[in-house]
Amino acid sequence: MTKKIVTLAGDGIGPEIMAAGLAVLAAVAPKINFAYTIEAKAFGGAAIDAAGHPLPDDTLAATQSADAILLAAIGGPQYNDAAVRPEQGLLALRKSLGLFANIRPVQIFEALKHLSPLKAEIIEGVDFVVVRELTGGIYFGEHTLNERTARDVNDYSYEEIERIIRIAFDIARGRGKKVTSVDKQNVLATSKLWRIVADEVAKEYPDVTLEHALVDSLAMKMITNPSDFDVIVTENLFGDILSDESSVLPGTLGVMPSASHAENGPSLYEPIHGSAPDIAGLGIANPISMILSVAMMLRDSFGETTGAAYIEHAVHQTLLAGVLTKDLGGQASLSDMTEAIIKHL
Ligand code: NAD
Ligand code: IPM
Ligand code: MN
Hints:
- By secondary structure, the protein is of the alpha/beta class.
- It folds into two domains: about 1-100 and about 250-345, Isopropylmalate Dehydrogenase, CATH 3.40.718.10; about 115-250, Isopropylmalate Dehydrogenase (3-Layer(aba) Sandwich).
- Helices cover about 40% and strands about 20% of the residues.
- The strands form two sheets. A ten-stranded mixed sheet has the order 2-1-3-12-11-4-5-10-8-9, with helices on both faces.
- β11 and β12 form a beta hairpin.
- α8 runs parallel beside α9 (about 235-245).
- The two termini are about 25 Å apart.
- Manganese (II) ion binds near residues 240 and 244.
């Protein structure tokens, strides 16, 4: 059956890396007999410019009837003081589709080991997943901005915590059997509840070890002892910050994909980074984050494990061959790298 993939290229480097991801998908599809259609929709700043709204109704409707969604990146400095921002569209999309479970894998490519700012012995064996709660917490609480005061509300219900913790345990069961639950339980009420729920869910998984960590010290340990972790689960804001921090391990945001899942309905795949306005339009962005997001889509949404493995292998081979974009210390352009990955498929 032909699968419908809705693409949201967005802003900045978004359209460039989306084109790269789709070129790789087009190259791998015939090898695995994967039939699909692409429906490209306006989103983010591009949609504000065209239609006055970052998430137009027909874009939302298309995503709701998709089999999977690919998103590149949104945002840009021109919207910093605008009444409507591209980021609002992203949050509205996540909420509308119920995409509560954001999976952000962190691994070190053999070929990139020497590029990490950290010592080789520290990043040896790093392979963990950040599971970020994506539709609750302070992102979605009430926001009030007055002239002299401001307020952001952080809300979590038992059920919202329970379902994301369960996702973390399920993932851990299929890999290193260890969950690190991250909170600020020494201060925040939401974190106190978080820890209670994590302990409760852990009882259902006697084969998986649960450890708790406070977010401040975890931020430090992620850099000093990154190979200690298997699955890290945390609330929306902490997960946003910690996952960008984790990109220091491979040395660049440009290789970091993600998947976001709902209880029902289509999943969404996107790099963890933003629109990189500083390099937009120069043709030098690293497309690997988008290309690996395509691989995650093939595996998670369509069960196409072989296609996903082909892409991941081709990325490894390309890096080993020394085809490196600027963020990796090389000279290769986005299209050089994309072509090399397609050649290695
Ligand atoms: P950013 O992630 O866009 O960029 C941070 C740094 O990483 C920049 O130096 C950038 O050049 C570099 N970088 C990011 N992706 C890269 C790639 N693929 N190849 C090479 N280098 C790459 O963060 P920012 O500059 O703080 O934010 C820019 C805009 O993006 C903001 O409007 C922000 O809100 C938005 N944003 C969007 C998303 C998203 O669409 N999901 C995520 C994060 C930030
Ligand atoms: C991300 C981004 C978004 C977030 C922004 C653009 C709203 O930083 O996907 O990590 O904070 O979730
Ligand atoms: Mn972020």
